Amino acid sequence: MATDWQMPRRGETCSCCGRSFEPGDVMTACLYETPDGYERRDYCDACAVPDDPPTIAAWRTRRPPPAEKKTRAFDRATVWQFFERLEQPATPEQKQLRFVLALLLWRKKALKLKGSQAAPEGEVWHFVAPGDAATFAVLRPDLGEDELDRLGLQIETLLTGREAADDDAPPAAAAAEIAAEAGESNHG
Description:
The chain is α+β, with helices and mostly antiparallel strands. Helix content is 31%, strand content 23%. The protein has 2 domains: 57 residues, no CATH class; 112 residues, no CATH class. The radius of gyration is 27 Å and the shape is elongated. The chain starts with 25 loop residues before the first strand and ends with a helix.
């Protein structure tokens, strides 16, 4: 008898005739107990479910449509405008926001990191716009994960004009990874 419960995944084809299931197709799903655990077999409406081996459970279901990938539109021009407006940040929050925007633009290949250097106010990262001679010096502020999340939510709000949903990953999560990687590569 099986002791480990793990629901097997649905089949892509009928276990009897081998016909591929299309989104919306009705099928009968049967659960069997085997010495190796549980096994699921799916049968199309045209095929009868065999009596042997006996099922421990059976149900009617539909093949769901393919999951739609949630994507967030990235408006490069808008992010670029925010970045340029913060060329001379006055507050610590503006310095943090400019840094996160630079990381986002770097990730989207709108900026290239040319290096970093120590300065009296902290580490300064130097970016260049590809195909352009413009260079940008961006102070790397000391940011914790909470601050990166807060800035990411602010960016989401600015870009979409609405509050970010709770299940949305803040855009700054990727920025935190990039910052950590870049910090290691520039200091190691």
